[in-house]
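2.7 Reproducibility. Because tokenized structures are sensitive to small changes in the input, we list the exact sequence used for Cyclic pyranopterin monophosphate synthase, including any N-terminal residues retained from the expression construct. No trimming or masking was applied before prediction.
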Amino acid sequence: MTDFTHINEEGRARMVDISDKQETARSAIARTSVIVNEAIYHGIQQNDMKKGDVLSVAQVAGIMAAKNTSTIIPMCHPLSLTGVDLSFSWEAMEEDAYRLHITSEVKTKGSTGVEMEALTSASAAALTVYDMCKAVDKGITIGETYLEKKTGGKSGDYYRTLQGEE
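Resulting structure tokens (single pass, no recycling of outputs):
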């Protein structure tokens, strides 16, 4: 059986050998958020930002990031993804603040999971929102990024439970 570690026999870094792992359907959902002011919220909603359609560009950025995760994250396996989907929803907060929720779902049929692809995708989408809106306000906040769910693979399914939830 293969030892799934990034350390080789000489104590140096290596990419884990997954050649003995069974190919299965795998998916992962990651979430993050971006907090913006009222001017940015209305600019995005009305598609009136100087750099263009913020959410469409963020969606493409998230998809491209998922597809290129192995070039960004050391020792992450290059994967053939079967699907990448990002969704966006808004939440009004205190006066003059709005939270954009970003959800990335990534799927594959392979020998290793897509958690890193989902997390990278959500992060890149959030950074793209920041980049496209920073001329209006550099005080934009990117929130907590986390894995919400993963399915498939030898380690089984994972569902994030927040404190206070059952």
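The mean pLDDT is 90.
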